[in-house]
Design a protein that fits this description.
Elements: E1 3-7, H1 11-23, E2 27-31, H2 34-44, E3 48-52, H3 60-70, E4 76-80, H4 85-94, E5 98-101, H5 106-124, E6 127-130, E7 133-136, E8 141-144, E9 147-150, H6 153-164, E10 170-171, H7 172-180, H8 190-201, E11 209-214, E12 218-223
Parallel strand pairs: 1-2, 1-3, 3-4, 4-5
Antiparallel strand pairs: 6-7, 7-8, 8-9, 10-12, 11-12
């Protein structure tokens, strides 16, 4: 049973989310502020966090940054009454995996939770299936039927990261930090160069996947089509 921390200073919101998650047999831990949420994640070894932005003691921005620093692969879903694009961009830049605007449909929220948990399980398995292609992080190869393609390390890591979280937006800064490391002092346009190489290398495989540019943010991988 997956454990989910719900961090919101509104008890009614926590109760509503908790009710629908309990109906799906998730274990729900409530937190009324960011500090309490951070402690709960560490203590309960949470599988996912739903966090509001406006909270006392530690707000959602701070909590998101703290969680991403301590748990790079922990799924985060941010909820907020502010649907301004600038707020969404800020959330994604800080590391949230998804952003939902209040008021929200609880059933839609549950579907988003399930999608995030599925992405996490894919990432943890060390293999990713992209239609007829399979990425193996154990061998660092892309397997196409009876053939396999060996990629340069950074190209493979970049493709694997995007493929592990289909549909999720990654900023250039996030990709640099997660693939090249926080000490990398080169141009962040190196991400663009590697994306271009991947697109050229797999130009004939668009039925399996495609890497899309998200203007003003970064990149995401879509499966099929």
């Amino acid at each position: 049973m997956a454990s989910i921390v719900v961090a919101d200073d509104d008890a009614h919101i926590r109760e509503l989310i908790g009710l629908f998650l309990h109906n799906e047999h998730y274990n729900v831990i409530e937190a009324e502020n960011g500090e309490e949420a951070l402690e709960a994640v560490i203590k309960e070894q949470a599988d996912l966090v739903i966090l509001d932005i406006m909270m006392p003691l530690m707000d959602g921005w701070e909590l998101c940054s703290a969680l991403r620093a301590k748990f790079p692969d922990l799924p985060l879903l941010m909820i907020s009454a502010n649907g301004e694009p600038a707020h969404k961009v800020k959330g994604f830049r800080l590391g949230t995996d998804d952003y939902v605007t209040k008021p929200f449909d609880p059933l839609e929220l549950v579907m988003r939770v399930k999608a995030l948990l599925k992405r996490y399980r894919i990432h943890a398995s060390q293999t990713v299936q992209l239609g007829g292609l399979q990425l193996s992080r154990q061998t660092y190869k892309v397997i196409r039927g009876d053939d396999s393609v060996a990629l340069p390390l950074k190209e493979f890591e970049l493709l694997y990261k995007l493929a592990s979280y289909p549909g999720q937006i990654f900023t250039r800064e996030q990709l640099i930090e997660q693939i090249w490391g926080i000490d990398y002092d080169g141009d962040d346009r190196t991400v663009d160069v590697h994306i271009k190489r991947l697109r050229e290398r797999f130009a004939q495989d668009q039925r399996h996947f495609r890497i899309e540019t998200v203007r003003g943010l970064g990149y995401r991988l879509e499966v099929g089509g």
